[in-house]
Amino acid sequence: MNSQVIALAQINPLLGDLPGNAKLIAQAAAKAYAQGAQLLLSPELSLTGYPPEDLLLRPAFIEAVECELSSLILELKKFPDLAVIVGHPKMTAAGLQNYASVIRNGAVIATYAKQELPNHEVFDEVRYFTPGNQACVFENAGICFGLILCEDAWHAGPAKQAHSAGAQVLLVLNASPFHLKKEALRIEVLRQQLAQTHMPLIYVNAVGGQDELVFDGGSFALNSQGEVVMAMPHFETGLGLVSLNAFAQLESGLITPPLSVQAQAYQALVLGVRDYVQKNHFLGVIIGLSGGVDSALVLAIAVDALGAEKVRAVMMPSRYTADISSIDAQEMAKTLHVQYDEIPISGPVNALEQALAEQFKGKEIDATEENIQARVRGTLLMALSNKTGRLVLTTGNKSEMAVGYCTLYGDMAGGFAVIKDIAKTLVYQLCAYRNSISPVIPERILTRAPSAELRPDQTDQDTLPSYEVLDGIVECYMEQNQSIAQMVAAGFDPQSVEQVTRLIKLNEYKRRQAPPGVRVTTRAFGRDWRYPITSQFRA
């Protein structure tokens, strides 16, 4: 039995870019080999990116994966005696499987098919894959390693099976999407599994944004006592190293401190925006800047993600826009050095109101006129997007999306909804966090009452409960599946619970038409919220 160095490739694959992802793996192998590693781990489905979704139903995609894997195996021959583990889909006699291959000296020396296929939250692997049922244990430099994939580690069976088959160290390949506080949850769950076998555990995770999902990296290693002996940074690519001694015990390495909840959320949003814009080849972004807190946070995130030169802010004042809104918006744009334009909307709003005057004769002014203003702004932003090739970032938060405090084809118009999973109370926390790094959001934006400024003296709380109450109800009802009775029993005002849950149901049709956005909670509106539009049930 010999000691050895194990490398963890915390890479950011581009889904479907098979040559590009193979290059990332080969580059990681070159670095690992140069640093004396004998084993390199890459994330789950590292060759394709995760999740491939219905690409997996295309035979041409599976054939291309097989072809690229063959080329990668030849490329890895450049690194003698370095074992490299690659994740990829594989068509087998059992069907399509979520697979991992252990490659050494130009040959596949071991394979593993994922056994536990997640079919909850954002996952639907049962739709695509057939589960495996066999352990994978292979020898490398005198030590026997057991190999499992992601969801397998959340169940007792696969690790026990590998241990019974002779594994001394457990390797876990992951493409584990981020949500707040997930780092602590992962470690706690894996400690529980480790307690069953007492095997040291090495966990590698992907990093990067993929549509709504963000993968946060944070790869780590636990010794046989369940102690963290190595931890890589979150939201960054990199190569981590951990050493096994001659007794198959992990030695202490570099440990990156955990992040605060606010830092987690902010960095997830920055990474999600950066990868969505860059991976989809947009030239930059455009933001409708209102002088309010939501658009201020989105602007700060965009600049941190892309750089000021890729961000354009557009202020579109109406007759109801307060002077301080324009002043604060302009001040923030100047502080962040972004292009700033003002396009007054009074002219086009008046023209539309005049065009509709005959149709609206005898009817009271209501939200219709407010929505015309929002839709003029949406039209202007989309026109600028068409002309410049820049993506419009919308600025609605989760609280607003929940109760429909947003306008279809107005402030919902755009390509990426940055903070659609950020409750209003968390918006303020993230602004404070960003200002603690460097003050970029004017203080007045954070202290004045939030308002859509679509009618005189309007504030959000004219028609909604306080955001503390609203966000609490949304979290309990939407994220935790609590009933109306449970929330009332927990102390929420019955009238507020009735109002908020009714609005959540009524506005499902709006959310179906909203752009995608970064998921940071355990349940976001989008891929893991699948409620019918037409339904009479609410309890």
What are the main properties of this structure?
single chain; 539 residues; alpha/beta; Nitrilase/N-carbamoyl-D-aminoacid amidohydrolase; Rossmann fold; 2 domains; 6-stranded mixed β-sheet; 16 helices; 19% strand; elongated
Would you give an account of this structure?
The mean pLDDT is 94. Helix content is 38%, strand content 19%. It folds into two domains: 4-246, 4-Layer Sandwich (Nitrilase/N-carbamoyl-D-aminoacid amidohydrolase); 263-460, Rossmann fold (3-Layer(aba) Sandwich). It is elongated and about 85 Å long. With 539 residues, it is α/β, with parallel strands linked by helices. The longest helix is centred in the last third of the chain and has 22 residues, at 367-388. The chain starts with a strand and ends in a 28-residue tail after the last helix. Strand 8 (169-174), helix 4 (182-197) and strand 9 (201-205) form a beta-alpha-beta unit. Helix 6 (293-306) packs across helix 11 (424-437).
